[in-house]
UniProtKB/TrEMBL annotation:
Pfam families: Peroxidase_2. It comes from Apiospora kogelbergensis. Residues 1-22 form the signal peptide. InterPro entries: Chloroperoxidase, Chloroperoxidase-like_sf. Belongs to the chloroperoxidase family. Keywords: Heme, Iron, Metal-binding, Oxidoreductase, Peroxidase, Signal. GO terms for molecular function: metal ion binding; peroxidase activity. Its cofactor is heme b. Residues 22-237 form the Heme haloperoxidase family profile domain. PANTHER family: HEME HALOPEROXIDASE FAMILY PROFILE DOMAIN-CONTAINING PROTEIN, STERIGMATOCYSTIN BIOSYNTHESIS PEROXIDASE STCC-RELATED. This is Peroxidase.
Length: 255
């Protein structure tokens, strides 16, 4: 009997592995599947971690998927989800679709790293010209918090000086640092005890470039699910460090 179980298990295991692969296989969205302004939520839908149609994402799903794919703690996902919920125009909705997130100035904001301002064009799709502006600051093989902060400021300044409709409401003004912290958390190497805060994380530029351009997890470049867990406390620490560095940079310091 035991032998039979073992041989069945051996026969079934590769099939299960194949199923798992198919489940997380990257596929570009097709007609009827919606995407939005968040490169990571789009990416997770492209891999089938989120529903491939980009629709009906509820809080439990967001918490489960971000844990499974990226090692995000519920504390980091809760608030983020709550900010996104009102983008669904349906009364009392308990889920959202990725394209709901595109509504200007709920969460979607001007001065994005990789998207046009809504005044100039679609604010939800990757825009190479905008991304090229950002990449001017992502020089060298890794991005530290100083480079990330300079890029973040530069895009806001560029939008503010060229877009007559430029706005950055309070939520957006905080959210921009959270977004930059988010990609560094996911793709970076951590040194939480670094004496200089700008060295808390170093993020391989090629992983970041690949992710933004392809909306795909850079497995083929050797990336794996982060070993650190992202709690709200850690996210806040990183956001505060970026804000602090930004203030110093604006004051002309070589931070
Ligand atoms: C429930 C979870 C999430 C929600 C509701 C959400 C929502 C959004 C929204 C609405 C934007 C557009 C802001 C803009 O106008 O640029 C955005 C941008 C962004 N998000 Fe997410 N997001 C989530 C999770 C994540 C995660 C896990 C990451 C990890 C890398 C991430 C990384 C980013 C980045 C880097 C941007 C900036 C894109 C740019 O500036 O071009 N997000 N997110
Ligand atoms: C939404 O919730 C409010 C408050 O609970 C309730 O009065 C209202 O009837 C609900 N609307 C719909 C469309 O379910
Ligand atoms: C972005 O930069 C790349 C590489 O420098 C260049 O080939 C491409 O034409 C630029 N794209 C736009 C839209 O400016
Ligand atoms: C960072 O410092 C703390 C407290 O000093 C220590 O417990 C921890 O092991 C250190 N972590 C690393 C990665 O060095």
């Amino acid at each position: 009997m035991k032998l039979t179980y073992i041989s069945v298990a051996l026969a079934v295991a590769p099939a299960l592995a194949l199923l798992a692969d198919a489940y997380h296989e990257w596929r570009a969205p097709v007609e009827g599947q919606v995407r939005g302004p968040c490169p990571m939520l789009n990416t997770l839908a492209n891999h089938g971690f989120m529903p491939r149609d980009g629709k009906n994402i509820n809080k439990k799903m967001a918490i489960d998927v971000l844990n499974k794919a990226l090692n995000w703690d519920e504390t980091a996902v809760n608030d983020l989800y709550d900010f996104a919920q009102p983008t669904n125009p349906a009364p009392n909705a308990t889920s959202f679709d990725l394209n709901h997130l595109t509504t200007h100035n709920i969460l979607e904001h001007d001065g994005s790293l990789s998207r046009m301002d809504s005044r100039f064009g679609p604010a939800d799709v990757f825009d190479e010209a905008t991304w090229n502006e950002t990449m001017q600051y992502f020089t060298g093989s890794t991005i530290d918090l100083a480079k990330a902060s300079r890029a973040r400021t530069a895009r806001v300044v560029a939008s503010a000086s060229t877009n007559p409709d430029f706005t950055l409401p309070q939520v957006g003004a905080n959210f921009i640092y959270g977004e930059s912290a988010a990609f560094q958390f996911v793709f970076g190497e951590w040194d939480l005890n670094a004496t200089d805060p700008k060295n808390m994380v170093h993020t391989p530029t090629d992983l970041v470039e690949y992710f933004f351009r392809n909306e795909r997890l850079p497995y083929e470049l050797g990336w794996k699910r982060p070993v650190n867990r992202l709690s709200l406390a850690l996210l806040t620490k990183l956001v505060m460090a970026m804000k602090d560095i930004t203030i110093k940079q604006m004051g002309g310091e070589d931070a």
